[in-house]
Amino acid sequence: MRRDVTEIRSFYASPLGQTAARLIGARLSDAWGPLTGQDVLGLGYAAPWLEEMREARRAVCAMPHGQGAEAWPRAARCRTTLVEDEALPFGTGVFDRIVAVHAIEEATDPLALVRELGRVLKPSGRLVLVVAGRGGLWARSENTPFGDGRPYSRSQLERLVRDAELEPFAWSQALFGPPWERLAGAADLMEAWGSRLVPGAAGVVLLEAVKVQLALRSRPVAAPARARRSKGLTPQPAGLTPTRRTDVEIPDERD
Fold first, then answer.
1. Does the structure show a pLDDT above 50 at 246?
2. C or N terminus of the chain, fewer CB within 10 Å?
3. Nearest to 118 by CA among 83, 161, 151
């Protein structure tokens, strides 16, 4: 059973929730940059991050039926819709970018949900799953929404998106500090050092997947490589770090 939307909203209104939203938002911003002219979908409870994507051509906030929905944005025409995980009310290939937060951990069928996200994603579109990390303290705390449902490791997320016929493209981590409000003021320092000293203790794993077409080959496909960090993006709060497989063709969005 999903956590009620009012409880999630209360968490993100707290100092700890605001800090978590800011740190995760920094990773998304690094990954995607400006979204001018893009169509964006936020699934789960994505309102705190969609607020920072106002330059997008269109942004829709989809909230799962078991969670409940709230109006977003508050000061403009409502763009929130209540959805079923396995039957999103959108056409095929509608969105350029999708961010799913507090979505797959409590889904009855995570694979079916990710496949639905892939269906509504445009060719060469990108999906970011923001999921509680299996090795972090946040997954063990029932005082935050990240303590609900099933946490994931990076390798588990990679398998999930591949099973959904998407390609893992980049990954990052966030929330290295413990989920204690009294330490929220030191979150930036713990974020900077945590990724270097205890990389397995991240509270959140972010995995970006891209919708690609497999290149035609006359030889067997090599074993898929894991998404990994690139040295060029490793310094201070790093965004999602890209990797590309040699056996897939990733369309150039400029074409």
1. no
2. C
3. 161
Secondary structure tally for the chain: helices H, strands E: 6, 10
User: Is the bond leading into 73 cis (omega within 30 degrees of zero)?
Assistant: yes
* Beta-carbon contacts of residue 64 (< 8 Å; ≥ 6 apart): 2, 43, 44, 82, 83, 84, 85, 103, 106, 107
Q: φ and ψ at 23, to 5 degrees?
A: -70, -40
pLDDT at 43 over 80: yes
Q: What is the pTM of this model?
A: 0.83
Answer for the pair 67, 2: CB distance below 8 angstroms, yes or no. Answer: yes
Nearest Cα to Cα of residue 157 among 126, 138, 198, 129: 129
For the stretch 113-172, pLDDT in tens is 999 999 999 999 999 999 999 989 999 998 999 999 999 999 999 999 999 999 999 999
DSSP letters, 212-245, are: -EEPP-SSPPPPPPPP---GGG-SSS--PEE---
Judge whether 55 and 29 are in contact, CB under 8 Å.
no
Q: What is the pLDDT of residue 193?
A: 83
Contact present, 192 and 218 (Cβ < 8 Å): no
Cα separation, 88 vs 209, whole angstroms: 19
CA–CA dist 222, 226 (Å, integer): 12
Total Cβ atoms within 10 A of residue 116 = 20
pLDDT bucket at 186, cuts 50 / 70 / 90: confident
Whether pLDDT at 233 is above 80:
no
